[in-house]
Design a protein that fits this description.
Largest sheet: none
Strand content: under 5%
Order of helices and strands: HHHHHHH
Structural class: mainly alpha
Number of strands: 0
Number of helices: 7
Helix content: 40-55%
Length: 138
Amino acid sequence: MSMQTPFAGEIPEETRRLVEPLLPADSVYRLVGNEIDKIISDKDFLDLYASEGRPAVNPVVLALVSIFQFLERLPDRAATEAAVLRMDWKYALRQELTWRGFHYSDLCNFRKRLLEHGREWVVFERLVAYLRERGLRC
């Protein structure tokens, strides 16, 4: 697996235009969508992927879906469905509203990759600390 698909640099215009007015100012998904660059980036995962090979689902997307899944206590299948169906998740994930997501097994494979490299808590702890610094409960 290789990391050839970069995480979006910004929220797609249509997603921002349609979803942002619906999100409360203190929404975790709004904060993540607007500020994720300050928390995690593709660089945090470069050493977990080969430089060549089949492109993997972007690890920032997988990390965020894993965090949202934890916050909402969802199993893998439900989390991947939420990533496709929920506009607040698409906003945070910086995806087009038409994005079709990924297979639920990618979440399990991503967690295995984190465990193999001893990085299972890095993203979670960093994101939770960032949200708490801003007064949000997690």
